[in-house]
Specification:
The protein has about 270 residues and is mostly helical. About 75% of the residues lie in helices and about 0% in strands. It has a single domain (about 45-270), classed as MetI-like (MetI-like fold), CATH 1.10.3720.10.
Length: about 270
């Protein structure tokens, strides 16, 4: 192939081109940095939409993680006992955790349909009126938390089950000799000894729940009427729908601070006795 460039041009590129590219990059970066600083001040001074998303994220995290902890510890105590078919029951219980969140969200989209979904049929079996699930701003956050609970309760169960397997047997033998009931042994022996393990499980799930994006985006995209818009959904919308990169970058920094603060609080709680 014949080249139309002179040999000297090919061997010796123009050094000024690199200088021009660097100058253009600096000019582009300066407004972006300034925009990020302005948007960060905007968030700190109180943007109503971000404030609502912040409290909504905390409420979703508290709702999901608290239910997952109670159910996970209860399932761990149940599966820690000897009974026929325990291995099969353990295997079946962790199957929801193995599926991808997007696939689970698509399944629950069909299950939550007001007229064709199976959830309202199950609700009608117990004599309750049908719910609108993700189609109502009053129930959407609870419906999304139910999906998260169904998927991630097995994780807390596995962590608690590992902690139960490492507990010593001597305190239970002493409690049995003293005439303590099963509930008293659980409340005064199992829970205090299992506290560090439970806090670790809550820490892992809280960090993940604060950053929940996939199931919310697939099922509601923040709707209806922004009733399920968490910080991650708002961040995505501002960055890739409105292309407000400064605002989105500021929210990313704020989300990092929230996750870091929650982690430090839970690690502090882990070191404090009940």
């Amino acid at each position: 192939m014949v080249s139309f460039l002179a040999p000297s041009t090919r061997r010796n590129p123009n050094p000024g081109a690199f200088v021009n590219l660097a100058a253009i990059a600096s000019l582009v970066s300066r407004p972006l940095v300034g925009s990020i600083a302005v948007e960060r001040r905007r968030i700190l001074t109180g943007d109503p939409r971000f404030r609502d998303a912040f409290f909504r994220t905390l409420y979703f995290t508290f709702l999901a993680v608290s239910v997952e902890t109670v159910l996970g510890v209860g399932m761990a105590v149940l599966f820690n006992r000897e009974f026929w078919g325990r291995g099969l029951a353990r295997t079946l219980s962790i199957l929801p955790m193995m599926a991808t969140p997007t696939a689970i969200a698509l399944v629950f989209v069909m299950m939550y349909h007001p007229t064709l979904g199976v959830m309202n049929y199950l609700v009608s079996l117990v004599g309750l009126a049908p719910f609108k699930w993700t189609y109502s701003s009053q129930t959407v956050l609870y419906a999304l938390a139910l999906v998260d609970v169904w998927e991630w309760t097995p994780l807390i169960m596995l962590i608690a089950l590992a902690g139960l397997a490492a507990l010593p047997k001597e305190p239970y033998e002493s409690a049995l000799i003293d005439g303590a009931s099963g509930l008293q042994s659980f409340w005064h022996i199992t829970l205090p000894l299992l506290r560090p393990t439970i806090i670790v499980a809550i820490l892992f799930r809280s960090i993940d729940a604060l950053k929940t994006f996939d199931i919310i985006f697939v099922m509601t995209q923040g709707g209806p009427s922004n009733a399920s818009e968490t910080i991650n959904i708002l961040l995505f919308t501002q960055a890739f729908s409105y292309f407000s990169m400064g605002y989105a970058s500021s929210m990313a920094v704020a989300l990092f601070a929230i996750v870091m603060g929650a982690s430090l609080i839970l690690m502090k709680v882990r070191r404090v006795g009940w």
